[in-house]
Design goal:
five-stranded mixed sheet; alpha+beta; methylmalonyl-CoA epimerase activity; Glyas_Fos-R_dOase_dom; MMCE/EMCE_epimerase; 3 helices; VOC_core
């Protein structure tokens, strides 16, 4: 059994051998690899984390949640607000693994004003995937179990999050 990991390589400027993703100039799919003296050097081209992709059931509710709990704001690029309601694209669909080219999705990018990280919220209308949320144990194989954010005061941040109605704490 083989495991296939799918992700976009994203750069802030279009380079040689790159193609622009229709979602905006800030997000460019880069098909090149880092090379040093003709040898692969993948560590040389990673300069940061571009965004986290989160599939949601209600994009407006998820937007409000991330704004309220973590301080994210609506992201903008040179074209304006990065919200793409009812987005369809054959190439996007195929890149996401939908080989028939059919996809209809709402996409909203949020940006954290302090660290500059983006969250890409997606609500699929077609095709609709499983609507069951599966909570995994920390030691189960497969998938990311947490994302760690650095904060200026861990106690204050923890206390604030505990007070939020939709935040689920492990302990």
């Amino acid at each position: 059994m083989a495991t296939v990991i799918f992700f976009f390589l994203v750069s802030c400027t279009a380079g040689q051998n790159s193609t622009e993703l229709e979602l905006g100039e800030e997000f460019v799919v880069d098909k090149s690899l880092g090379f040093t003296n003709g040898k692969p050097n993948p560590g040389s081209y990673i300069v940061g984390i571009s965004h986290l992709n989160i599939i949601v059931g209600d994009i407006d509710y998820a937007t409000e949640f991330y704004e309220r709990t973590l301080g994210f704001v609506q992201a903008h690029n040179v074209r304006g607000v990065m919200y793409y309601k009812g987005y369809t694209s054959d190439s996007f669909a195929r890149d996401a693994g939908f080989l028939d080219g059919n996809v209809k999705v709402d996409i909203r990018f949020l940006k954290h004003p302090t660290i500059g990280m983006h969250i890409e919220l997606m609500k699929y209308h077609e095709p609709i995937g499983s609507q069951e949320i599966i909570y995994r144990n920390t030691n189960d194989l497969g998938g990311i179990r947490h994302v760690a954010l650095e904060v200026s005061d861990a106690e204050k941040a923890f206390d604030y999050l505990k007070q939020q109605p939709d935040v689920r704490m492990i302990n």
